[in-house]
Amino acid sequence: MTWGRFYGVGVGPGDPQLLTLKAVEVLRKTDVIAIPKSKLERESVAWEIAKGHCRPDVGQIEIELPMTSEREVLEQAWESGAERIRRLLADGQTVAFITLGDPSLYSTYTYLLDKLKGKIPEERIETVPGIMALAAAAARVNLPLAEGDEPLLILPSGEGIEDYLGFPNLVLMKVSRRLPEILARLKDKDRAAVLLSRVGHDTERIEWNPEAQRPDGKIDYLSLLIVKGAVGRAEEEN
pTM, whole model, 2 decimals? Predict the structure, then answer.
């Protein structure tokens, strides 16, 4: 049997120009793109970023990933997705699983990879890093994530944030569900923050020192907070 090659490709946060040269090279030569998608999505954000770099005749499979915290449901979805990919690889096809940001940071790719290890040859697996949303966000507002010997802490949500407010540099991912609570905690400690949503997309939004009470009541799922000791109001200087 001649196995195909499996790639986990980070496509960055949103701007198709932020894909690495390596990612573009892989996308152009791959036979099948594995696209992560939840039931709630009409279109995959990762595919919208990557499709301009793929061959017009590239094959596509959607890997359905339910938006749930139920481990049993998730395990079943990962097993099912991994098996679909394994069959394609066993057929000699090259498969690229695309993921927002970087494949090694809070990505479903790592769960699929875990299911595939031991079932396909290790040398047929390659992970292609991508620009993380937090790096793109910091660049977008011209803020350092950390300086000198300062620590940087990345939290997957705002849960338990009060335990980490002593860190000089914080990045909070996936803040949409807990944003009012998070902002209240930051205000109590006189910490400043900038909220960025859909970095690199046409609908990108940047809010310096955001307010907990929001007129529309909506926070985009693809939102993060950069928290510093004191964030300058850059828009007032421009």
Answer: 0.88
